[in-house]
Amino acid sequence: MTHEPFKALYQRAADRKGGEIALEVLLGKRILGKKLLDDNAAHESVALLTDDRVLAAFTKQIFKSGFVWRVVENKWPDFEEAFFNFNIEKVLMMPEEMLERKAADPKIIRNYNKVKTIKDNAQMIFEHQLNGKSFAQFIADWPSNDIIGLWDFLKKNGARLGGNTGPYALRLLGKDTFILSSDVEAYLRAQQIIDGGLQSKKSLNAIQAFFNDLQQQSGYTLTQLSRLIAFASGDNYMQVDAT
To answer: 30 has which bridge partners?
Structure first.
């Protein structure tokens, strides 16, 4: 089956969002119709992050999963204080009883199973640091044309980083990745790009190939392309005044 070309997808999204300039504002390609953004800027900045920020991003997204995001954001300063600003070595030195006490602290979200992931993911990061490279550099170096491979690595080696949690955490860090939102999934199924389970190996390979093809056609980032698909489909017709 021949899939919808980028130009048709882009035009439909532009029609729904009030024109091409308005669409590019929403995609982050343009600021108020005046300045084009450097698509590679966010990606390049990932390597400059310290690994405590990587652990913080993983933790924040894990706690946001299935919970009210606003509550997590409001409590985040207390998370930072409780877990030593996510310093990898200090987190790994926390004994089990300390983790239990932290998980019972009303200043943070009291969920012991999620609190345990902080130490587990710190261990994953620390083990990778033994190779002489920061985990942030490792993420930055991973090729975008196999972003599903990075998802799989986080799922297998980390704690609670499967599904969309890992991809959203990567997006939070500035790593270019598409997100399999409900609108994106619906589009992929309508285009018969996938017909089975969303997270199956077959489906993920087909999705990656589709996004790689769109990227070659357009030069847009994976982040921009997944947003473009969402803007071109679903129920959201909100427009932007870019005049």
So the answer is: 36
pLDDT of residue 30: 67
From CA 63, how far away is CA 109, in angstroms rounded? 8
CB 208 within 8 A of CB 148: yes
Other CB atoms within a 10 A radius of the CB of residue 22 amount to 20
Long-range contacts of 80-84 (CB under 8 A, 24+ apart): 80/56, 82/107, 82/108, 83/59, 83/118
pTM of the entire predicted model: 0.91
- Please say if the pLDDT value at position 36 is more than 50: no
Provide the pLDDT for residue 2.
Answer: 73
> Between helices 6-17 and 20-27, what is the axis angle to 10°?
100
pLDDT tens for each residue of 81-121:
999 999 999 999 999 999 999 999 999 999 999 999 999 99
Q: 61-64: long-range contacts at Cβ-Cβ below 8 A with a sequence spacing of 24 or more?
A: 61/165, 61/166, 61/168, 61/169, 61/172, 62/114, 62/117, 62/159, 62/160, 62/161, 62/165, 62/169, 63/109, 63/111, 63/114, 64/168
* Dihedral angle, C-alpha 216, 46, 166, 5, nearest 10 °: -10
Chain segment 152-166, per-residue pLDDT in tens: 999 999 999 999 999
CA atoms of 201 and 208, how far apart (whole Å):
10
What span, in angstroms and rounded, lies between the C-alpha atoms of 187 and 111? 35
